[in-house]
Amino acid sequence: MLAPLDTLVGTLSRLPGLGRRSAGRAALALLREPERLLDPLVLALREARAEVTCCSRCGAFTVRSKNPCSFCSDATRDGSSVCVVEEPADLLTIESSGAFRGRYHVLGGKLSPVRHLGPERLRIAELKDRVAREGFTEILLALSTDMEGDATAGYLAEVLREWPSADAPVRLTRLAFGLPADSGVSYSDPLTLRRAIVHRCSVT
Amino acid sequence: MLAPLDTLVGTLSRLPGLGRRSAGRAALALLREPERLLDPLVLALREARAEVTCCSRCGAFTVRSKNPCSFCSDATRDGSSVCVVEEPADLLTIESSGAFRGRYHVLGGKLSPVRHLGPERLRIAELKDRVAREGFTEILLALSTDMEGDATAGYLAEVLREWPSADAPVRLTRLAFGLPADSGVSYSDPLTLRRAIVHRCSVT
To answer: Per the domain annotation, does A157 fall within a domain?
Structure first.
């Protein structure tokens, strides 16, 4: 294949969700319609690169002209509760549920001994700082429901015990386990089902 | 969502194979690791934009410094046969089969009354020119096996009848119909099966 095309396919295929095959299709489409596809993409990438930054408080993406971000500076949001997510993308998903109106804190990942990601790589010190300074009374952990997410939750529970003080420690909660919406028993894996049974609730 | 991020997701989701959801994931990944993902992508896009062009002869992608392209200028390829494809991507797929060693000609699409793509949008005049000048004795049509592909093949057969001369017209062939490899009767749709039966061949 042509070297510049090959390089383009290579860089595109590093993106999540784009395999080598779809990256190839995307590259050919970009070159077939450069005015409609390639030029606007270069422009959007450069603009995002120049303007988007991480909120100095919560770690979510924001624009340089708005730091702290709109979630951190919105006075109408509940300042007593903070939701801890792994990635900025998780924040947007939770926000779209409309069920949480507090603050956010982006950890930047989860603990993973296998991938050598220790607690020093996560924004845990920043979280402790914010709990002390902003006076959150609840931390809602919205982490992955896999082994690494569980390990991260366990580590945070350890670190935040008796924080910010032994008399008034912050309350740690996590998202409920159970069946997903629009699903059913026969679509669920055994672990999900076991958790849904253990955490069963009354029909009201 | 943030305006620059929104624009980026919008431009990414115009690419084939990227829905709104995967474009969002890709955009966040690009911003999370700009040095590893975003900067190389901008570079690769700009380089491809600057260096890749269409071969003046066959219409396939090539680099500016190599025009006509390597398929057109390779003296070891069979100059008597030309394979007509819709898009440059098709050419690469056929080339990877290793079964064709002649020249190529990119039509630039197929006839589509529904999408108002008439013959004037396709590189048909260029094909006629090449048949006369390069003396191809066979045109292998490698078009889609849908109604639009069939209509295009029918139109080309009409246009190329008695071309370049009534005594020695070019022979038009097309890819065989039948079952795909690594498949079986129960995976096939009725039309494929009907064609596979009509075009059945002896077991040798």
So the answer is: yes
